[in-house]
Design a protein that fits this description.
The chain has two domains: 7-82 and 224-228, Gcn5-related N-acetyltransferase (GNAT) (Aminopeptidase); 85-219, Aminopeptidase. It is 22% helix and 35% strand. The protein has five helices and eleven strands, in the order αβββαβββαβββαβαβ. α4 (176-190) links the parallel β9 (159-167) and β10 (194-198).
Length: 229
């Protein structure tokens, strides 16, 4: 089994087990960290285990190998194809770039409010007040305001996910996403790991950027955002 197969379950049973809440065959990140969850297998027992982790009305994000099929006890909020992409370059496309008069800063607890505001505006994926605990997050500021960010999310043996890549709509077109992704990827590769990521299939502009940076589609997953009835 490849480490990126059933990637959420693998992350929550290996490198990020310390961030997991568990019930039988299901795992999820603590709610203040992320709404991402997974199970050993997408069987009735898997979904029953997942239900044991949630209160009625709570939602989870699943990465499934096939489109979600209706199951009792769950409402589908969103279902969409989601390619999983892996970096296959040799590093030539990852030369560090300058940010003109801005500098790349490391983001932490003091920046959470701004990080949540930026991700709420741009919607790169689920982001909560403790998501930054999943890995290193970097940002670019202009006149003191956070205008772009990118960071690390799920971690499995030999691989780290690049995530939360976003730029404020008033500051697009300056290459900030590429600059921040490059820095995040260089740090991942510096640890001897391979970067990977997930992206909605309809986000064509982002996919084109990722391909230019050396990412290639590995498999097509299916995002399912479910609410427990």
């Amino acid at each position: 089994m490849h480490p990126l197969d059933n990637v959420v379950w693998t992350a929550l049973t290996t490198r990020q087990a310390n961030l997991a809440e568990s019930f039988d065959q299901a795992r999820r990140f603590a709610p203040e960290i992320s709404t991402i969850a997974g199970f050993l297998e997408p069987t009735s027992r898997g979904y029953e285990s997942l239900a044991g982790l949630l209160s009625p009305g709570q939602t989870v994000n699943l990465a499934l190998d096939a489109p979600y099929q209706p199951r009792p006890g769950w409402n589908l909020i969103l279902g969409t194809p989601m390619p999983q992409m892996v970096y296959e370059g040799n590093g030539d496309s990852l030369a560090r770039q300058s940010v003109s008069d801005q500098e790349i800063v490391t983001l932490g607890p003091a920046d959470v409010q701004e990080m949540m505001e930026l991700t709420s505006l741009t919607k790169p994926g689920p982001f909560s007040k403790r998501t930054h605990e999943m890995g290193a997050y970097l940002g670019i500021r202009s006149h003191g305001k956070l205008i772009a960010m990118a960071g690390e999310r799920m971690k499995v043996p030999g691989h780290t996910e690049v995530s939360a890549v976003c730029t404020h709509p008033e500051h697009t077109g300056h290459g900030y996403a590429r600059i921040l992704m490059t820095e995040v990827m260089l740090r991942i590769r510096g640890r001897g790991e391979t970067p990977f990521l997930h992206v909605r299939e309809d986000n064509v502009r982002a996919i084109e950027l990722y391909q230019r940076l050396g990412f290639a589609r590995r498999v097509l997953l299916h995002l399912a955002v479910l609410r427990k009835v």
